[in-house]
Amino acid sequence: MTSTAFVLGGGGILGSAEVGMLRALLERGFTPDLVVGSSVGALNGLAIAARPDLDAVDRLTRTWTTLQSRDVFSSSVIGQLGNVLRHGTYLHDNWGLKHLISESAPGASIEDLQVRYQCVAACIEDASATWFDSGPVLDAVLASCAVPGLLPPVSIGAKHYVDGGLVASVPVGRAVELGATRVFVLHVGRIEKPLTLPSRPWEVALVAFEIARRHQFSADMQRVPAGVEVHVLPAGTAAETVSVRYRRTASVAERIDVAHRASSAFLDRLMA
User: Fold this and answer.
1) Which of the two residues, 77 and 112, has the higher pLDDT score?
2) Confidence label for 90 from pLDDT (cuts 50, 70 and 90)
3) Are strands 34-38 and 116-123 parallel, antiparallel or unpaired?
């Protein structure tokens, strides 16, 4: 019996591409038995795990296409400076992100979702990946999306958590571990574009992180056992490999549409 997993990777504002991919999958009758998400993929995946149908994709599309940078990164420049002075480690509070998560699954625990769901965050104290498969949705997804330096670490119990992309940016391996026999990989487009030598000081750390995340994805793909199908959906356009323009929302609708068209064509060929 085929067990289908949707694996949704990280990528910040570029995560809108995953919405187009979700639409292409559901339009063709592919529904998940398991959803695994990291960072922004945890947020997108939550919407589908809560309600795995096209109505959920419509809501997700409206959320993304009406998104303003202030909806997530709400602080003004003065507010950012205030956060740095008070806390020393991040620019923005996470109230806007809490609102987006609550819209996707208001008041839910992970156990209440319609589809089995897991998301990942990096535990600071243990320097390890922590997979959330039970408990409050809000805490788990907030932790998975907590980009270091931009958003505050999330405290759960006695430990603190930050962005899941640090430990499992595109968590194919986790889906396989959980028994998936058919995996659809939804990503933001970065893996479709070769890396280039950094030319500016701030690009050095970004390129280093990108090397680490791609190496892990490649290793996961090489370890996929025989008998497991893995289909990496195309984003349709290569995303910016590195960028500090994390608040730019202007191309969200276009990215959704391009990814939808590219993934639709890919799936039609697969089904044929």
Assistant:
1) 112
2) low
3) parallel
Q: How many residues does the chain have?
A: 272
**Over 50: is that where the pLDDT of 140 sits?**
yes
The full DSSP string for the chain is ---EEEEE---GGGGHHHHHHHHHHHHTT---SEEEEETHHHHHHHHHHH--SHHHHHHHHHHHHT--HHHHS---HHHHHHHHHHHSS-S--SHHHHHHHHHHSTT-BGGGSSSEEEEEEEETTTTEEEEE-SSBHHHHHHHHT--TTTS--EEETTEEEE-GGGT-SS-HHHHHHTT-SEEEEE--SGGGS------STTHHHHHHHHHHHHHHHHHHHHTPPTT-EEEE---SSPPPSS-S-TT--TTHHHHHHHHHHHHHHHHHHHH-
| Residue pointed to by tokens 């490649």 | 218
- 3-state per-residue secondary structure call for 11-79: CHHHHHHHHHHHHHHHHCCCCCCEEEEECHHHHHHHHHHHCCCHHHHHHHHHHHHCCCHHHHCCCCHHH
- 31-63, pLDDT tens digit by residue? 999 999 999 999 999 999 999 999 999 999 999
Contact call for residues 240 and 52 (beta carbons, < 8 A): no
Q: Please check the confidence at residue 255 and state whether its pLDDT lies above 60.
A: yes
